[in-house]
Amino acid sequence: MSKTPISRIKGGDLELHEKVVAINRVVKTTKGGRAFSFSALVVVGNGAGVVGHGLGKAKEVQEAITKGIDDAKKNLIKVPVMHGTIPHEQLAKEGAAKVMIRPAAHGTGVIAGGSMRAVLEAAGITDVLSKSLGSANPHNVVKATFSALAQLREPIAVAKQRNISLKKVFNG
User: Fold this and answer.
1) Residue 83 contacts by C-beta under 8 Å, 6 or more apart in sequence?
2) Using CA atoms, how far apart are residues 124 and 51, in angstroms rounded to an integer?
3) Is 94 exposed, middle or buried (0-12, 13-18, 19+ CB in 10 A)?
4) Regarding predicted confidence, which is higher, 10 or 60?
5) What share of the chain is helix, strand, coil (3-state, %, to 5)?
6) What would the pLDDT profile of 86-100 be if each residue is shown by its tens digit?
7) Residue 116 falls in which region: left (phi positive, over 0), alpha (psi -120 to 50) or beta
8) Domains and CATH numbers, the chain
9) Average confidence (pLDDT) over 39-61
10) d(CA 8, CA 125)
11) pLDDT higher than 70, residue 30
């Protein structure tokens, strides 16, 4: 399965909403005592098909979140959202985390777990069925979800690539 190129977008000209997915406290024992640092996994999105994720590390929680937001704005992708759902089913794997996302009928809502839900909602997807298979590590689940969304293709692009009508793409 070939990976489609990710369309990168500049984060400065969009109004993005942030969601902190996970905060991790790291303790390093030194000669002078304990040194605490924090890492924050953050997802940003405009709710209209643009989403990104980032990781920030710092001595303070707020500083780590800010760094995570800046990193997420550098990793934005455009996701094809059709009538609040995705165009087709997609599987993706990252580390031991494997995710499956499926289109759903209008009114279904976002059926997804914690870290996967944050990515899907930030992208503006309102109706989707999803399942996280394997690891529940938030970092890998977010990366796998991001990968699955990046692999989605628009029906118009598929029709052009195959030289068939848009109607045939949907009816097989």
Assistant:
1) 106, 127
2) 9
3) buried
4) 60
5) 30, 35, 35
6) 999 999 999 999 999
7) alpha
8) 17-77 (3.30.160.20), 80-171 (3.30.230.10)
9) 95
10) 19
11) yes
- The model's confidence at residue 172, banded by pLDDT at 50, 70 and 90, is low
Non-local CB neighbours of 114 within 8 Å, separated by 6+ positions = 21, 138
Q: What is the token pair recorded at 149?
A: 């969304």
* Amino acid found at 37: S
Q: How many residues does the chain have?
A: 172
* Tokens, residue 116: 């996967």
In the sheet that 110-111 helps form, which strands lie side by side, from edge to edge?
A: 90-94, 97-103, 128-134, 110-111
Q: What is the pLDDT of residues 71-82, one digit of tens each?
A: 999 989 999 998
Q: What is the C-alpha end-to-end distance of the chain, expressed in Å? A: 20
The DSSP result for 94-153, as a single string, is ETTEEEEEEE--TT--EE--HHHHHHHHHTT--SEEEEEEE---HHHHHHHHHHHHHH--
